[in-house]
Specification:
By secondary structure, this protein is of the alpha+beta class. The chain is built from four helices and six strands. The protein has a six-stranded mixed beta sheet. Strand 3 and strand 4 form a beta hairpin.
């Protein structure tokens, strides 16, 4: 019985994280982000449990997506640890601890192709339209 207790707690935490990721996807989707995807990387790296990746069609849209997330992250129960790349608006990273949000300008996203680095046949992926 004792051996199952940490697994139950871990599962509850993972489910809560998954729900926060879905809420974050809704915020991103409200700004018409392109090709949004959330990738569960918890078993692949220690830097985060989730990578959320999206694109904007212009620098203005990339910044608008970032601004919307910055306006709403506290409502989602997230804590912003760091923001990088905003002034250039070509690859913005928002660090929420267990979630790293990458907002790309399309050319940078294609060049770096970080989805390829972090996905495989066993990786959980969530898209905005999924329940």
């Amino acid at each position: 019985m004792e051996g199952n207790f940490p697994n139950e707690i871990e599962m509850r935490i993972r489910n809560e994280e998954r729900e926060q990721v879905k809420k974050l996807l809704d915020v991103i989707d409200s700004k018409k982000a392109i090709d949004t995807i959330a990738i569960d990387v918890a078993d692949k790296t220690i830097i985060a449990d989730w990578f959320v990746i999206c694109s904007g069609s212009s620098v203005i849209q990339v910044k608008a997506i970032c601004d919307e997330v910055l306006d709403k992250y506290e409502e989602l129960g997230l804590t912003l640890r760091r923001k990088e790349g905003y002034s250039e608006g070509r690859w913005i990273v928002l660090d929420f601890g267990y979630i790293l949000l990458h907002i790309f300008y399309p050319e940078e996203r294609e060049y770096y192709n970080i989805e390829r680095l972090w996905t495989d046949g066993t990786t959980e992926v969530i898209r905005p339209s999924e329940e």
